[in-house]
Amino acid sequence: MKVHEYQAKAVLKSHGIPVPHGGLARTAEEAKQIARDLGGAVVVKAQIHAGGRGKGGGVKLARDPQEAYRHSSNIIGMDLITHQTGPGGQKVKQVWIEEATDINRELYLGIVLDRAQSRLVIMASQAGGMDIEEVAAKTPEKILKEAVDPGAGLQPFQARRLAFGLGLEGDGLKQGVQLITALHKAYVATDCALAEINPLVVTRQGDLVALDAKMNFDDNALSRHRDILQLRDTDEEDPLEVEASKYGLNYIKLDGEVGCMVNGAGLAMATMDIVKYAGCSPANFLDVGGGTNVERVQNAFRILMSDDDVKAVLINIFGGIVRCDLVAEGVVQALQGITVDIPVVVRLQGTNAEAGARILEGSGLKFRVARELKEAAEAVVEAVGGAPNP
Ligand code: ADP
Ligand code: MG
């Protein structure tokens, strides 16, 4: 789950990481009032679940409350386009107004889980502020890394090594070690999936401040973090994904034309690959789960049908725990309850697959029943009028 910058900053602050003072505004009038209360120059920052806002025009310096008002009225309501949003951008509904910081240097500090090493990796760089992806691609030697042993935890020497590598000295070095240690603690305590401070700045006075903050949380751990779950902003998520999550469906919207309904995440991935190989693109990833029932199939179908991009549906079910005849009955019942006006290809395999195929064929509904996955994928490509892969 993603959160806004201002929310991530609140989490960091509660773990002792210094962040600028600020306030959240939904209108330009509120922004002006916050700027007045803060006093001095402020920065107006669009709050959307995407980075690269500065380059897209979503971060502006304002010298006085009137200028904060002007910038805010331009930014609130705009479709902010960054390299992390789609081409249509993301509508800005609120701005974070914070005190302008006197920047001496912009650094980068981040923590990710390295699945290959099964360890958290802390990354730090003196080349902060700009596209860290570009730094990683072109000058990877500018990024320092420390892998944390999960048993021993972050060692003080590792935090010191990173802080030295950031070119910090004296009191700044002490602050750096504290901040790196605090970020690691925050990451573990809140079950983060990604934590990033870019830029982490050294002010003219020599202090460290987190000027930007990004935190993604592990969805599977949210059940034990009610406070973090409260930070969810469904306005920022794809409406169909929000709808699917209400029914416990694992759904991710993609930009192809074949709606896929599959049981099991592994089979869903394989199905998407085969669809692509056959000459079309999947419109979504959808795992209806192992114990597929009528209600789940029906909800999944409604979600696929409300996506205008979907030109045909491919149902690919493997009957392992569930029996294919039960799944087939479920699919038939589900489709009797809703309007489906596009071609549907069904492939059932596994326990009682033949009985399942007969139920589908005898239902009077317009299915194309396929036995093999290749056949199913080719049928769906034909249905959307795509060119088959020779
Ligand atoms: P994004 O990464 O989405 O572009 P940032 O929060 O990193 O947004 O802001 C972009 C740039 O704006 C920063 O690299 C920094 O130079 C400047 N900036 C952001 N917040 C402040 C602030 N409070 N004071 C001064 N400059 C800021
Ligand atoms: Mg940033």
Our measurement of the CA-to-CA distance between the termini, rounded to an integer number of angstroms, reads: 40 Å
- Unreliable residue stretches: none
Bound molecules: adenosine-5'-diphosphate, magnesium ion
Helical content band: 25-40%
Strand content: 25-35%
- Helix tally? 14
- The general outline is elongated
Give the oligomeric state.
single chain
Mean of residue pLDDT?
93
Given helix and strand content, the structural type is: alpha+beta
Give me the Rg, rounded. 25 Å
Q: What characterizes the major β-sheet?
A: 6 strands, antiparallel
Q: Number of DSSP strands?
A: 18
Notes on the protein architecture:
The chain is α+β, with helices and mostly antiparallel strands. The protein is built from 14 helices and 18 strands. Strands 7, 8, 9, 10, 11 and 12 form a six-stranded antiparallel beta sheet that branches. A hairpin with a 4-residue loop joins strand 10 and strand 11. Helix 6 (156-165) packs across helix 7 (170-189), helix 10 (265-278) packs across helix 14 (373-383) and helix 12 packs parallel to helix 13. The radius of gyration is 25 Å and the shape is elongated. The two termini are 40 Å apart. The model has no long low-confidence stretch (mean pLDDT 93). Adenosine-5'-diphosphate is lined by residues 20, 43, 45, 51-54, 59, 98, 100-101, 103, 106, 129, 198-199, 211-212. The site of magnesium ion (MG) has 3 residues, from loops.
